[in-house]
Design brief:
Number of domains: 2
Distance between the termini: 66 Å
Strand order of the largest sheet: 1-2-5-8-11-14-18-22-26-29-32-35-38-40
Strand content: 25-35%
Helix content: under 10%
CATH architecture of the largest domain: 3 Solenoid
Radius of gyration: 28 Å
Amino acid sequence: MKSQNRLRLYPSTLPSLPMAMPPFAQAGLSGLSPKSRFCLRNLFSAALLITLVAILAVGMSQFAAAATLCVNPGGTNGCYSKINDAVAAAKPHDTIKVAAGTYAEDVIIGKPLSLLGENSQTTIIDATSLSNALYIDGLDNPKLSDVVVQGFTAENANFEGILVTDASNITIWHNYVLNNDMALNVQKGTCPGIPAFETAEAFDCGEGLHLIGSAFSTVASNTVEGNSGGILISDDTAPIHDNLISGNLVKDNLLDCGITIASHPPFKGKTPFGIFQNTISGNISTGNGTDVKGAGAGVGIFDSVPGTSNRANVIINNTLTHNGLPGVAMHSHTPGQNLDNNVIVGNYIADNGPDTDDAATPGPTGINVFGVSPVSGTVISQNVIDHEGYDIVANTPARVNAHLNNLLGHKTGVDNIGKGSLDATENYWGCPKGPSDSACSSVKGSKVAFTPWLTKPF
């Protein structure tokens, strides 16, 4: 019967409503008969339910109002021929679907929307002689959030292929970022024309994919190849925190790191903004920073000027191989910097180069912790380090902790070349007898604790 679908205001139906009557109204019922109180409670509950349904309907109508726009190279079938024209026409939270083809544009996004390419190999934004292929611009659009970019090749830009500034809840997924940073003068180490808000990018033009001042954003399943550097996280314009960089293939970016987390001088003001609580997870970073000596690590965690802060980041379950600097390089170059509480856990690290300059290591290195400022609270655990001359090197006034790692290089497992100490207990040194056996990886340097050790791989 249809009547079974109607709202029935009987006591058995009302407990699911969280507020049948507010306390101040309950007091006003005390002088009424039980039947009157029951009726008034039911009326209030019905009014509450109608209000909730109305609110839900408004929300659904707003969601339903979001439109889908289209772009194709010919601008046919009611579609736009340029991506920027569709972006300009879109309302907040609209979706723009872009057909396969090549679009010669510098696409600038300043509103929440989803920009979806048909296929990352065939939907190409060619930014030859332009600043960027894709720029999500929160610097000029305060509080920008909720932008999705998926399914594009972003190539040939003077600066970054994909740039994000001062925005939150951004998703950059399944794109191919190729051959950007074209304005770079390698011989002079300059990048003519790069924006002033990029305070420390002259030597690499911002790398392939760059987040500045971003929060709660995700960069996942992208391929970043052939740029000066790969993926860069920096704090030039605002604090940058709680971002996830996951499942990306970052390879053959020959002039800088594969993945860089770098605290820079501030664009405005005197105090650096700071970097914290970012997660670098499940990426492959290989063949980066090999064209110039000391050019790039698999993952770099760097402070630059006094007052910079780069703390509490997590580097987990990555594959870091064949990079010009160590698999993971941590650098604090001056007093008054914060490089504390970073976590390096569960990574596979092999066949990387030595560190250089003031952070120099004695040879090819898996993980290097270098700090003029004390680098405290570092966790190095559950990593597999192989085919390195030095698996872990410490050079900082603080204590460095490294436990439950498989140090398989059969050369130097750990070397403390700084003034602090290195707690390297409970590691596996490549054979059951530990570092006292010539068949195992060895210990160098003073103030190194290494007993007890693991007798089999972790």
